[in-house]
Amino acid sequence: MDIGQKVKVYRLRDRVSNPIAQRLGQVGIIEGFKMTDGSGVGVVVKFNDDFTTWFFEDELKVVQ
């Protein structure tokens, strides 16, 4: 996964707030990366409505 790629949220690993849960099935663009728990990397995704949040890599699939 690279910055600028389109990704689709296809699953949510944990319980999340409603605004994030509503992103399931939506497509956004990778804006960057962040450290999650000291060893994992989260992917920061921005959606068409300017909402930005992060997901684990295994929660996303690259869209062509």
From TrEMBL:
Protein name: Cytochrome b6
Organism: Chlorogloeopsis fritschii PCC 6912
InterPro entries linked to this entry: Tsr0524-like (IPR021291)
Superkingdom of the organism of origin: Bacteria
Name of one Pfam family that matches: Tsr0524-like
Lineage, uppermost ranks: Bacteria, Bacillati, Cyanobacteriota, Cyanophyceae, Nostocales
